[in-house]
Every structure is written in structure tokens, then in C-alpha cells.
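Example 3.2
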Amino acid sequence: MVLAIMACAPAEAAERLLYTAEPGFVVGFRAANANEAIEEWVPKGETVQNWTRMLTFQRFPGLVQRGRTGPELLDFIAGRIASVCPGAKTTAIARSIVLGRETATLTTRCPRNPATGKPETTFYRAITASSDVHVAQVAFRSVPDAAAEKKARDYLASVVLCGNAPSDAQPICKAK
């Protein structure tokens, strides 16, 4: 069964992420406040503390009005990873325009997370909306093989920003 999900924004929000639920994953954590909305999905039977793979969707309200874009947020994340994980490596931030919106991607590789003792690899996709920045992530608490990396990148490429007005460049927000 394919289930389209609209994440990390109140129902009345003009723009939000639209993604397909990953089979076998469940919501492990969801919270929102004035600065961020976050939703974390883990494989059924795992938790947000003890996971092997995780999908994370975030919305940062009003970040664009404060002069920050998706690429700038990913640049901040890359710097943060480098400071908390000895030996971390990050890819260059790749920028593109998707459905009329600035989009950026980043991959981070932490050889050994000091908090868990395990490697972590995370793929990010940030989309700059009219006022908010949205970030989707696929994370592995391991070193993924080439097939898993391709699947993660393909999944993130399927995550899009949707809007409520027919004049928007992005698809209309509605569950399928």
C-alpha cells in the first residue's frame, strides 16, 4: 500500500513536504514549537534512541524571513557534524531548482558517533519554501552499501514541497 504523507506543517500551512511512507516504518517521535517541527520514523520495533535506519522530516518556520536558506542550513549542519564527530566527512552541498524551489543535498559520514560508538551516515535534502525551510533525512546507524545509498538518494529525490494554490509551481497538497 502506498501512503502519501504531508509532514511537519499544520493543515492550514500553505506549503509542506509530501513524501511516501517507507514500508515497515512507524512514527517514533513527533513534536512542534515556534522554531521547529520534527517527525522521526524508525523501523517497527525500533525506537528513536535505538535504531538502525531513521527517516526525519523537519520544518523551520520563518527561516527564510530571517535570511537563511536550505543550503545555508545544510552548511551549518555540515559544520556541526564536523565539530561533534571526530573524523567526520561531508560532501559538497549540491544545489538545484526543483519545482521552482531552491533545493540542496548533503551527505555526512561519521565513522564513530561518540554517543553510540557506532558509525552514522546521513543523507539530507533541504527545500527552501516561501517562508520556511524543510529538511528530509535518511540516516543509517551503519556504513551503507552502494545499493542502500542509491535507495536513500532516490527516496529523498521523491520528497517534494507541495502547496495549496493551483498557481504554485509545486503539486497541490493532498493525500493520495
